[in-house]
Each structure stands twice: as C-alpha cells, then as structure tokens.
Amino acid sequence: MELRQLEYFVAVVEERSFTRAAERERVAQPAVSAQIRRLERQVGQALLVRSNRDVRLTQAGEAMLPHALAALAAVRQARRAVDDVAGLIRGAVAIGTVTLHPVDVAGLMADFHADHPAVEITLGTDNSDVLLDKLADGRLDLAIVSIGVDGQPPELDVHIVTDEAIDAAVALDHPLARRKTLTLDELVGHRLISLPVGTGLRTRLDTACAAARITPQVAFEATSPLELAEFGAHGLGVAILPESMARNNPRLHALRLVPALRGRLVWAWRRDMTSPAARLLRDRIRHPPRHAS
C-alpha cells in the first residue's frame, strides 16, 4: 500500500469524481483510476462504487477512509517535524502586481527562494481592482496595488512603496505648458490620457471628479503609465501621471492639480493571513535583509 494510493483515494472521495480528483492532484485521470484499482486489489475489496453521476464509498471504503485520512495526517505531521528540525518551510505563495512599479520583485523572489527552496512562488499582473478582489477571496497572498491615501480596505494591512502626488502633464508646446497649476474644472475641458477604469490612478481621478460633480473626458487610455507619458509628449492630450514620472520626463511639462490628488503604491495582504510561507515573505518585505537592495 503506497502513500500515493491513499492520496488519490481520499481525493476521489472528497471530490466525488475521478476527473476532479485528477485535476486536484495534477495528474491524468487514468493514473488515478489505475492506483485506485491497485489499492482495491491489495485490500481485496471494492472501495468505491462508480456511476455516471458520481462516486460513492462501499462499506469497505467507509471502513478504509478514516485510516487513510489518519495515515495522510501522520505523514504531514512527520514532514512538519522534519522541516522544523531543518528550518525548512514548504507551501506556495501567490503574488500579484500592477504593471508598473519600482519594486525589484524578481530579486525578492530569488532571495526568498534561495532561503526557502521548498516554497513555490507564482506571479501575475493585473489592475488594482482585480488584485484587491483576489486578495479578498484568497486567490492571492500578497500584491502590489495602487490605493488612495485614505483608501486602505479594512481587512488588509499594507507596506507603503511610494506615496506621491498625481499630476497633469502636457507636451512642451501645449497651450497649458505655461501654467503651473490646473483645477479639476479646467482639466475636464481638455482631452485626457489616463489608465483604464479599475486602476488605482484612474480611480483617484474618477473619485475626485465625481466629488466635484464633473465628468472627465478621457480620449486615450493605455495600460502603462510609460505609454501615457509617450501619448502626452506627442501632444495627444493631458496625461494623468504620478508626480515622479510627470516631472522627470524632459519632454513633458507638469502641472499640479487643484485640489491635489495623491496615490499610494503599496504591498498589501490580508490581516488574517495563515500561510507560514506567505508570512515569511511578508516579513521580508517589511524588514528586508541588510544585503538586499
């Protein structure tokens, strides 16, 4: 009797399907079926009743199930005990980020993997609204997102990456290039260049305009602030950009918005985080090792 056979048996029972069990165990369905048949031959009894609709336990299967569960639990406890002695952490951590940020995520992942090679890390990108939803329902453990200065969701903790003003920016030959400031009322009289709905920067703009009961005229959208800057530099309209990008581009003239808009780029995670691996990565983000850049 092999551990793999017990794992497949429990998966089929819990999923009530050979197909779903195979997906859960990340193997082909015939492999699950073959191992279950081997297990049944070894115990000398049919353990499962197969039908077109679902899978049910036989009487022998019902007798087998608690012992299979106990055996798997004992193996997990044994692994944890050995890991504790070795200082090894296992598990998986799912990270999400917005498309543009100043964090060296690759370096962070490489350093973490060097210290915890048994932890599997996955990385994906999306806009802030989607990333926050994925944090909320547990699909992500940590994410780099854009939020308002007072827009932190109550169920999340954050570590601030950047906190800066949001500016308007125009080409050097634009009529507004002689101005230093621009009110929201004046802003909406121009064609705007902005990130799409769902991004943090766009949410800051739309929220401020809604509060002022005005509607922005977004003529061009792009998924990256770098593209917004390019559109602005080519005279296609007024680009809405983080201050650092608006004021450090020699092809753009930056204007301070009135009232001022601010946004934060943060690492975010659920306060009730339970994964030991994710907690270790969170702690590394909060308190980077001295050798880290």
From TrEMBL:
Keyword Kinase attached: no
Question: What GO terms fall under cellular component here?
Answer: protein-DNA complex
What keywords does the record list, in alphabetical order?
Activator, DNA-binding, Transcription, Transcription regulation
MF term (GO), any: DNA binding
Q: Which Gene3D superfamilies match?
A: 3.40.190.290, Winged helix-like DNA-binding domain superfamily/Winged helix DNA-binding domain
User: What CDD domains is this protein classified in?
Assistant: PBP2_LTTR_like_3
Q: Which Pfam families match?
A: HTH_1, LysR_substrate
Which part of the chain is the HTH lysR-type domain? 1-58
UniProt keyword DNA-binding, yes or no = yes
**What is this protein's function per UniProt?**
Required for the induction the katG gene for catalase. Involved in the response to hydrogen peroxide.
Q: PANTHER family under this entry?
A: HTH-TYPE TRANSCRIPTIONAL REGULATOR CYNR (PTHR30346:SF28), TRANSCRIPTIONAL DUAL REGULATOR HCAR-RELATED (PTHR30346)
Member of which family? Answer: Belongs to the LysR transcriptional regulatory family.
Q: What is this protein called?
A: Probable hydrogen peroxide-inducible genes activator
Q: Which organism is it from?
A: Mycolicibacterium bacteremicum
* Lineage, uppermost ranks: Bacteria, Bacillati, Actinomycetota, Actinomycetes, Mycobacteriales
